Amino acid sequence: MNAAMTIRVADLMTSPVLSVTMDAKFADIRTLMEKHKIHHLPVVDDNKLMGIISDRDLLRVLSPFLGTAGEMQRDLEALNKVAHQIMTRQPICVSAEDSVDAVLAWLQTVDISCVLVTGKEKDIKGIVTWRDLIKHAKFTIDT
């Protein structure tokens, strides 16, 4: 039997999870992620999950011309975006009772680095990142 099958998502998820509202400003999102050294930030509306913002989403919005001689008005306008304009909609979610195999399957199938853990009402219970999986991994050496 695979050892991962006996581990539930609840056993390794990070909880509670920081989140932002749909109208959170880009600068506030960036500051929050840097301050807490996180790479994923769920977006909620009335405590219901609406999307997720990753550090990759932030990089996609940021212009490489910001702060350079080539900076244009459109580069500065990117800084005025809000969460619902840059988030990934319909993030991958699992239940706290799911096996860690469900997380592994999603990470192997889709180009993502985390899954959100939600309840029946789409409320956020936790998050599992690839780093959580590594922290909880157990390696055995055959002798």
TrEMBL record:
Organism, as annotated: Marinomonas phaeophyticola
Gene3D superfamilies: CBS-domain
Annotated protein name in UniProt: CBS domain-containing protein
Pfam families given in the database record: CBS
Domain of life: Bacteria
CDD domains in alphabetical order: CBS_pair_AcuB_like
UniProt keywords, alphabetically: CBS domain
Residue ranges of the TM segments: none
CBS domain boundaries: 13-70, 87-143
Family matches, as SUPFAM superfamilies: CBS-domain pair
